Amino acid sequence: MKNEIRAYNNILELVGNTPLVKLNRIAENLTGNFYAKVEAFNPGHSSKDRIAIHIIEQAEKAGILTEGSTVIETTSGNTGFSIAMASIIKGYDCILAVSSKSSPDKIDMLRSMGAKVYVCPAHVSADDPRSYYEVAKRLHKETKGSIYINQYFNKLNMEAHYKSTGPEIWEQTGGQITHLVACSGTGGTISGTARFLKEQNPNIKVIGVDAFGSVLKKYHETGELDTNEIYPYRIEGLGKNLIPGATDFSTIDEFIKVTDAESAHTAREISRTEGIFVGYTSGAVMQAIKQLNELNTFDKNSNVVCIFPDHGSRYMSKIYSDQWMEDQGFLNTNTVEETQEIQYVK
Ligand SMILES: Cc1ncc(COP(=O)(O)O)c(C=O)c1O
User: Fold this and answer.
1) What would the mean pLDDT of 218-235 be, rounded to a whole number?
2) Nearest residue (CA) to ligand 1, atom 6
3) Which of 67, 133, 311, 331 could make an S-S bridge to 45, C-beta 3.0–4.6 Å?
4) d(C-alpha 242, C-alpha 224), whole Å
5) Is the CB of residue 72 less than 8 Å from the CB of residue 140?
6) What does the pLDDT read at residue 102?
7) Which of 50-64, 120-134, 212-226 shows the lowest mean pLDDT across its residues?
8) Is 44 in the pocket of ligand 1 (CB under 6 A)?
9) Mean pLDDT estimate for the chain
10) Is the CB of 247 under 6 A from ligand 1?
């Protein structure tokens, strides 16, 4: 008798069910037990695969998307990549409106995945007809049978994590999770996951990670959108200059802010100590854990789960480039020795 062929029908069947990995060396001096949900194991190398698939499949169920339809979004980041990947398999056209600030590498990556990319001027206001928001909206209106993913305001974003990330973490920890620490950008990951976990055990503490220069922490604490909080920062995917409708702030117990420099160094430290090659926001979440540890948030019985949203390969010209780190003023005499010297053989 022949053995059966064990193959996935297509790449999208690999979305979700990412591993939970114990953190060892980086957590050596911290109180508690620490585990990372490594979202780079998704086929598009980030947690955004989950929302791309969920939002597209809900639109299919509603009869909005049919073969040859168009999926539209405004992002040069992980979500764009995930939508492009899903569109290939499902036979949709994918249009991504991105800012002219996006690196040529990112634009080429999206084009390599079959997306039609509109590069829109970065210096115009959000309501200018040339802004990437307005271009996406216009294309959505003009393209019959299209959907606009609109991840910052789409409730299905949170639902994707409520239905997948939350149950996976509950099952992987055997219900023993005590704390969830996760970055908040659109807020879909943290609030969807948190809502599911708190339904299982309302005592689980949920801590959101925000950037200095973002409005989320203050909004959570005061209900006020304080524009004085807004200034430019480097970490992509974390924090925001508006209040995302995709976040359920009531599921989050507290926010903690992290700096660009410490998050970058901590991402590099995770790669070097755990052998997990992570993106910038994974550094941010681990940096937040270090700060929470200093504040005595955990005890020896704490089972802390954090989410590492994406893969380090997307940041080669940023946090993994010594030159970039130096240009940002992030390298100082205490930290230069952390990367290996290149040995040139003559
Ligand atoms: C790299 C990265 N980390 C974290 C996040 C935050 O996840 P969420 O948008 O679900 O809050 C994002 C989202 O844009 C991201 O791209």
Assistant:
1) 94
2) 185
3) 311
4) 11
5) yes
6) 81
7) 120-134
8) no
9) 94
10) no
Does pLDDT of 122 surpass 90? no
User: Would you tell me which CATH number, out of the four given (3.10.270.10, 3.10.50.40, 3.40.50.1100, 3.30.2350.10), belongs to the domain 47-148?
Assistant: 3.40.50.1100
Q: What is the pLDDT of residue 335?
A: 58
For residue 114, the CA-to-ligand 1 centroid distance in Å is 23
Asked if residue 98 lies in contact with residue 122, where contact means CB atoms within 8 angstroms, the answer is no
| Cβ neighbour number for residue 212 with a 10 Å cutoff | 14
* Whole-Å CA distances, 40 to 28, 35, 316: 23, 15, 15
Query: Which CATH architecture describes the domain 11-46+160-328?
Result: 3-Layer(aba) Sandwich (3.40)
Cα separation, 26 vs 287, whole angstroms: 10
Atom 2 of ligand 1 has which residue's CA nearest to it? Answer: 237
Q: Cβ(164) to ligand 1 under 6 A?
A: no
**pTM beyond 0.70:** yes
Q: Where in the chain is the domain with CATH 3.40.50.1100?
A: 11-46+160-328, 47-148
Model confidence band, residue 269 (pLDDT cutoffs 50, 70, 90): very high
Q: Contact, 182 vs 274, CB < 8 A?
A: no
What tens digit of pLDDT does each residue of 165-187 get?
A: 999 999 999 999 999 999 999 99
Ligand 1 close to Cβ of residue 16 (< 6 A): no
Ligand 1 pocket: which of 98, 155, 159, 189 to mutate (most atoms within 8 A of CB):
189
Q: Is 239's C-beta closer than 6 angstroms to any atom of ligand 1?
A: no
